[in-house]
Structures are given as structure tokens and as C-alpha cells.
Amino acid sequence: MTREELLGIVEAVLDSARVPDVVAAITEDRTAAVRFGQNRITQNMDRFERKLRITLGDGERKSVYTTHRIDLDAVPDILSKAMEMLRTSSPDPEYMPPVDAGQVYPAVDSWVPGTAELDPGGRTGAAALAINTAGAREMEASGLVGTGWGATALGTSTGNLAFHRSTQAFMRLTLDSGCASSYRFLFSEDWEDLPVEETILQVADEVEADRDQRELEHGEYRLLLEPQAVADLVPFIAWSMNARPADEGLTVFSGRLGEKVTGNDFTLYSQVHGDLKGEPFSEEGLAAKDVTWIENGSLRAQPCTRYWAGETGREPLFIPGTLGVSGGEGSMRDLVRNVSGRALLFRRFWYIRFVDQKELSLTGMTRDGVFLVEDGRILHPVKDFRWNWKPLDLFSGIEMLGTPESKGRIIAPAMAIGPVEL
Amino acid sequence: MIDDMRELAGRVVGQLRHRKVDYGDARVENTDLESLTMRKQRLEEAELRTERGVGVRVLVDGCWGFASCSGFDAGEVENTVDRAVAVARAGADAIPGSVRLSEEAPCTGHYDGPCTRDPFEVPRSEKLDLMSRAADLMHISDLITMSWTSLRFERKRRVLGSTEGTLVSSDLVFSMPVLNAYAVENDDMQSRGLQDGARIAGWEWIEEADLIMWAEKAREEAVMKVRAEEGPTGDMDLVLDGTHLSLTMHESVGHPTESDRVLGWEASMAGRTFLGIDDQEKLRYGSEMVNFIADNTLPYGVASWGWDDDGVPGQKWYTVRDGIFQQFGSVRETALLVGRRRSTGCCRAQDFASFPINRQPNFYLQPGEDGVSDDDLIADVKKGIYIEGRGSFSIDQRRINFQFGGDMFWEIRDGRKVRPLKKVIYRSRTRDFWGACDGIADSGYFRTMGLLTCGKGEPMQAARMTHGASTSRFRNIEVGRGAE
Fold first, then answer.
1. For residue range B183-213, what is the model confidence (pLDDT) as tens digits?
2. Does residue B483 register a pLDDT over 90?
């Protein structure tokens, strides 16, 4: 549907609802992707979904109704379903009306027409290149390559109307020789920006370098994290930052607003329109903004609902879908060259889970490349192993930072971290 | 509604035949969902959802194509058929297709999952009253700083039609209660909760799960846990209850025995498996008392759909028998590739918008001989830990090296449970762990867990399956503490 058609249905819902408080949002999502494994295409898909979400409130109670039935004729029936849910809900002591009128939504330019309309041949061609390259080098290729777009039209009974659309292009690639592997995740709003061929060749070279893995010897090592490995850890910090659970004593950030939570070299932020392109508004229509959550190691801000913000005198804030870790200058190769003593280089982590939420302690595995580094030289690959770490402790020992790289909605630098006992 | 959906599926199959695809199927789905969630004693969310749409899968020159649309609009559905054919052709143009499906006789019929009392007919006031009483009970203690109580009901109507002549439908009601209490004291937080998960059942499952009993138990044990000491470390015996083992077996038996993993189709995401195709019917997986039975006919099992998304009927088989690995769970496309003539019926998609892939079936650890209780297992442990419920979990991509926590821990000393513990984790390797099993309680101690959110595939899909076990004992397992 066009922008006007989507907003037209949103306005029809707002006009027809017989309750004071309404938020209506329609989302459209199209994803077309080719999945491959064992050097063959295993899936080739083109998915489309359109969904309407209505939140109704009568000043005391609220309810949510979501449906795939979307057309102007269906609006009365949809509203009657939502009203029935509202009538039978219980009063909410934390009831909040929709966001105030006059929200100013940042303009986020993340729509690339060529990506939205990419021919299926572009995707299958990229998959075929990965498969053929792998086959020629006695490897197996697996991964996903795709493009897609999303659009959201939102309105509130307080008078806000918003529309946003974005495109995405992505490739996840693993090449595996049976005894060695490597991986890369590429992401951009623009298909043309993905360095598909160059990356496939690089990853194949990395697999060659990963052969003859040896067991890790116990001892003390500096840690060299590739940007993907940093990006794998960062969401666990973000998920723990919310103000209310912290205030209730449930997380590691309890009572620590304004305090040091990591070393000086760690800064975590969200951006709406810059190197990172986020969502300009929340599900309830609150305008997004750039926020620095942890600045030079100090906890500066926490995501906070409107209700809890009112109770505690904070500003209501949410993560607009993006996270950035500030970096320095230089490549992973520079960090390797400059690290002193013995270090381990990690390509990415796998199956990370909380061990203890209150401590923010995590466990996980290494995957697709661990290398022993000594005095600036990669000596040999190391077999995958399990680790148990606290990321806030890790990020308290940062010794060097590389240039940040985009890893989907996360931008992160390579990192060198001070000695850790393994 | 099912009749209309069957008619729509039949129409799509006609369009597929007209386009002369080598194979094609249409999945027509309608899902109604009610979700009620209390944060502490307040209704945080009351949500209804109606999700419906059509997924079309085709084979053209040995290459898959799949397309989906939400809603049942005739024009959009026919456009979806064309999109599926177009992407299949693009794939075949790029890489020679090689898909072959195992033989399967076309099926027709309808399956209604068990449901005694339709949860959508239960007054909302009755649901909210039950949740409020449970939440109030948890918050009797001031140490309970937070709690979640939720009820989730889903009615999934699905129809599958194929160009081979299959036309099957099912009408399934899923019910799931969840309850968790969080105790905070001395700068620590510990939780305890009801983790039996979902069943294909109606309101009767909510009554059987007994939220009121669980609210009392969760409160008392969360407080006990936050005040408990951390446990001993080192090698010792473990006695694990059924809800705990349900997750351990999911990760270390269910995933490694999926056929798409041995073929490398998940190598970039969920990972591979340590098993090889030639390990079927040969490799020792566990001790002789270890029998894993897969069963997609288990009445309340959340993977019992009548037929899978290949149109293959639900089946029952041994995954591990007398400790020996028997066979992979498979779909029609992988069965031939792992040396089987027929699929085990493990092809399922998250929803109409997802391409169906190889998923775990319902499966369980066969209970021990009659007359063996969990106390009998504990009585023969000099130094060990008894673990109930799920906690932290992680395993490597080949499914060998794992670490698990739990929801409640008790120290065992000289054959008795002596005190509660917290922050216990254990580590092992899959075959070592199942090889260390030397005691399984009888069927009276059998507990199940119905999972709705097993993540796999790209784009990620959530799948559902039920696991079960009786309390079991494992010798000399490495036990640690938190992040140490």
C-alpha cells in the first residue's frame, strides 16, 4: 500500500474508535532471501506480511488487538474485537494515556529503491558465487543472502501521525572445510554497498588459515575481539539496562546511574540517524532520540517507560533499534601487530546466555576462528572452547580500540582487552 | 472456517498445477491468540491477535521457491503463487536444482487436538481472578520484589494441500501458564517458577498446572534460594528432575539428531552435529538404560499436529535405544540423503510466512522400571546436587560441550537432601553425560515441558515440541559456580 493508503486506515481507526485513547499502527514487511548449505540452495523465499495493531484505553483499562485483516471495510469489526478485550480487562493502576501531541519525529533516510525492488537473480547470483567459490576450494558454503523492506504508519488519538520505511540488504556466510571455518555478516540499507565477492574470497582465505587447530593451553591471555565478537556481547548489556528492573534490585545496574560500570574506554550509545539508522518512533508513538547510555565507563542514561519516568523524575527513553560502541582508529591487523605478550584473537561467539542476571555474568562458546597471537604475530588457530565472563569486567580492561564496523543494527570496533586467566 | 480454508488450499493447488510446477503445496493458516500478563499484581498486557495467511512452496527443476502473504485475499494469494514460482526459477537458473522428496502416499483427513474446555470460552474474569490470586500469594513476602504471571492461549487452524493430492487439516488449541517469583536480598536476586510450558489442551491444563500451589512454592523457594549459600564445586553426582532434563535433552539429544544438521544445512546458524550419517544404529550415545522415544502422536505434545508440513503423518520411533543412536529425525527432502526411505515427519514451519524446515519432534526419556523413586536415586548419592527446573543453558554448535544451570538446587550428602543452594552450574560432554546415567525413576515421576520457542533457521523460526523425563541420576559430573 502507499503511504497515503496506510495512513488512511490508521486515521479511519482513530476516527471510528469510541474510546478516548487510541494508538493504531500498520506495519508492512517484505523479506526475500536465499538460504544455502552443503553447497546447494536449501530455501528461496519471498515473504510479505501486513499487520494492524490497535491499542485502546478508556482512562482506566487498556487492551491490544493485532490482526492481518486490513481494509477499510473491516475496521468496525476489528474495533469491536478490540473493544470486547478492553471491556473485560482489569483496571490498570499504571494507566498511561497516549503520548502527548506534538511529537517531533526525526527524519530517517534509510530507503533505497533499488534494494526494495531487487530482482531475485541478484540474490541467487550472490548465493551461487559463494557456493561455486566454496566448491572450487573444497569447502562448503552455508548462509543467507537477502533483501527486504519495512514500512510503519502510526497514529495516536492525541494527534500524532507518523510514517517510516526502510530497506535492508544482508548476507551471512560461513565457509567450512570440515576442520576449519570462518564467518562474516554483512548488512546495509543498500544492496550495492555489500562487498559480496570480496568478502567471499576473504572468508575462504580465513578458512585456510584456520586449519591445524590446537587445544588451548591454560594461562593468562590478552583478548583480541573482532567487531563481530564485540557485537555478540553488547546486547546483553543493553538488555540489562532498563531503569525499572534496576531500581527494583533485579539487575547489575541497580543504584548505579551516574557511576562507573566499566573502564573509561567504553562508550555505548544509540543513534537514530547517523552511521546507524534506527526507528524514529516507538510502538506507542514516542519520538526517538540519540542517547549515550554509558559514557567513558559511566552509566549516563537508562531505557525507561513513560510511567516509570513519571514516578522517578527521569526522561522516558527507549533503544531505537540501534547500538553503537565507540572506537578508535585502525584495523584488526593493527591491533594484532601492537598487542604485547600472549593473546587470543576471537572471530565471533556462539550461544551466549546469562548465567546470573544480577551479576550480568555470561557463558558462551567461541566459533569460526580462535587464534593464538604472540608479540604481534598470529601463531596458530586454537580449538573452540567455553568461556564464562562478565562483559562489564571485560570492558573495564580495554587497552586498544579499532575503527567501528557495522554488524547489522550494531556498530562495534575491534578491541584489545587486558590479560584474562583462561 | 476450516472448510473455507480447505477450499482456499484446493484453489491454490489448482493454480500450482496450472503453472506446471514439479511439486507444489499450499499452507493456509488462521491463528487466534489471547495473551494475559501480570507484572507483580497488575495486568501489564491484555492482547488478542488474529493472524492468517497463506504460504506457497514449489519445486521447479529441482529448486525450491517459497512465497507468503498475510490475509486470504484472492488476488494477493494468486500473486503469491507467481512469486513462489519466480524465485524457484531464479534459483534453478543460478545453481542446478537437486531436491528429491522421499515417497509418501497422499493423505486426506482432519485432526482435532485434545481440548476439553475451550479456553477462549472461559470468561476473562475467571482467568484474571486466577492470575490475581497467584500474584497476591507470591507477594505475601516483602522479599518478592518482582513476579510475572501469564496465561497464553492459541487456536491454530491449519490446512495443507499439495499437487500430489494431499489435503489435510488440523485444529489445535495450545494453552500455557507461566509464573515466576523474584526475591531480592543482600544485593542478590534469585527466581523460581512454574516451567512445565505449553500443551495441546484447553483450560483443563491450566487447572492441572495449579498456579495457586505454584505461587506458594515459587515464593517460598525464591526466598530460600536468595538466602542459600553457593554450592560446592568439583566432580559429583547429579540427580535431575524431569523439567530440568527436558532442556538438557532438547539441546544435547534433540538438536544433534536433526538430519539437516548432519547435512550441513544449519552450518551458518544453528550449527552442525557431532553425529555422522553412518552412526545410525551403531554409535553409543548413553548408558544401556538410556532410551529416547520420539513421538509426534503424543496427545498433549505440542508437536502433535496430525501431519507435518510435508503432509507426513505423526509417527513414533526410537532416537536412542538401549543407549545406541538409532536414526535422525527427518523431512521428505533429507530422508533419502541420510539413508532412509521415508521421512519421520519432522517438517514444520513457524507459521504460514515461514519455509518449513527439519524440527525436533516431541521426545522423551523412557521412564525406569516400576518401583524406583527419586528418593531411591538420592539415597545412593554420597555427595551431589539435586536440580529442579531450567536455568542458564549453552552448548557448542556441534552439540558436544554444554553448561547448564537450573531453577532450584539442593545439596545431597550421604543419601539425603540437606540444604538449598544457589548459583549451581554443571558442565559435561554429550555422550559422557548420557553415558553417566545410572538411574531413572519410574513413570510416577515423569514430568513434561512443552516448548513454544525453539529457535532455529534463518530467518529465525520458533518451533514447538514437548519433552519429558522421570528424575534421573548421573555420576561424576563437573559442577561449578556461576561465572567461575
1. 999 999 999 999 999 999 999 999 999 999 9
2. no
Give the 3-state secondary structure of residue B64. strand
User: Least CB-CB distance to B396: which of A128, A173, A350?
Assistant: A350
Chain A residues within 8 A of B47 when measuring between CB atoms: 63-66, 85
Closest of A348, A389, A345 to residue A366, by C-alpha: A348
What's the average model confidence in pLDDT over B306-329? 98
Which of B271, B345, B261 is CA-nearest to residue B303? B345
Residue contact A142–B52, C-beta within 8 A: no
* DSSP H or E stretch at residue B223: helix B211-226
Among A350, A10, A361, A14, smallest CA distance to A185 is for A350
Q: Say if A179 is an interface residue toward chain B (CB within 8 Å).
A: no
Nearest to A364 among B269, B394, B480 (CB): B394
Cα(B127)–Cα(A310) distance, integer angstroms = 30
Residues of A in contact with B145 (CB under 8 A): 248-250
Q: Is the pLDDT of residue B484 over 70?
A: no
pLDDT at A275 > cutoff 90 = no
Q: Pairing mode, if any, of strands A62-67 and A40-57?
A: antiparallel
Q: Give me the pLDDT at residue A256, please.
A: 97
Sheet holding A298-299, edge to edge: A298-299, A291-295, A268-270, A323-325, A410-412, A405-407
For residue B373, give how far its alpha carbon lies from the nearest alpha carbon of chain A (Å): 30
Whole-model pTM?
0.96
> What's the rounded Cα separation, in Å, for the pair A47 and A33?
9
Contact B395 A351 (CB under 8 A): yes
Where does the pLDDT of residue A70 fall: very low under 50, low under 70, confident under 90, or very high at 90 and above? confident
Q: Which three cell numbers stand for residue A73?
A: 471495510
In tens, the pLDDT along B411-456 reads 999 999 999 999 999 999 999 999 999 999 999 999 999 999 999 9
Is residue A37 a contact partner of residue B267, using CB atoms and an 8 Å limit? yes
Q: Contact B132/A37, CB-based, under 8 Å?
A: no
Phi-psi region at A249: left, alpha or beta (left = phi > 0; alpha = psi -120 to 50) = left
